[in-house]
Amino acid sequence: MNSPRPSGLPELRRPVMIAAFGGWNDAGDAASSAVEHLALTWDATDLREIDGDDFYDYQSNRPTITTVDGVTRRIAWPSTSVSYARLPDADRDVVFVLGPEPNLRWRAFCSQLVELADALDVELVVMMGALLADTPHTRPVPVSGSAETSAAATRFGLSPSKYEGPTGITGVLQDAFVQAGVPSISLWAAVPHYIAHPPNPKATVALLRRLEPIIEVPIPLGRLDQQARDWQEDVDEMMSDDDDMAAYVRDLEEREDDEAGDENPMVEVDGDALAAEFEKYLRRRNEGSD
């Protein structure tokens, strides 16, 4: 680290980089929404955009057309944006990385971000994600944290990563930072698989609250707290109109209570498998009521 700073880059104080990628890594858009909230709240300044032509398959991540003033049509291409915020009331600044998960050339993509972090003297990277899990919406959102080294785990009160299996760009990028000597950790919110559609402000709030002591900067939640409460009420109301769903949620609550003694009860789950399990549950309930 500490390579000569390229011209045009800002001088930042003890910067922490916070990254989130939409898609496979971000159930309910919870992580992307967390980074967007921070960038807006702290009035982030655009730094650079990673050219999408090199990393996105536009048939998978299609560009979108928008109309401005009913006349001008503009095309927005998938890309990864990098911005930064100076925090006058803190002793550190923040760099944000936000975009859809790239489809192509992940190692080259990660190299660009590692080089930028090196040039900015980033001292910590926090990867944010959200996964579908067998967890009830009625309980506090579980947020798991992991670190790739025991030193980082001890420093931030996290568990060393024990996950084995397929990974997304968050896992690849975290490894790239670790290999480059940049401390990197990840935070993952558990999103109920039966309410996977975005937004999920409750999961977003949970991620931000877990992030706050790590970066040692107060995080204003603004309207997010109220949005999380409204979301909870809306889902509760929906569940109250469906006896089968209400019974299913109670089963999840009981299962969570039974696992309360487990040191690490939250594991990544296959969303398709959970959906199939839920359908089987409903069929059993229907057969039992005949």
Automatic annotation (TrEMBL):
InterPro entries reported in the protein's UniProt record: Proteasome_assmbl_chaperone_2, PSMG2_sf, Rv2714-like
The protein, known as: PAC2 family protein
Source species: Gordonia malaquae NBRC 108250
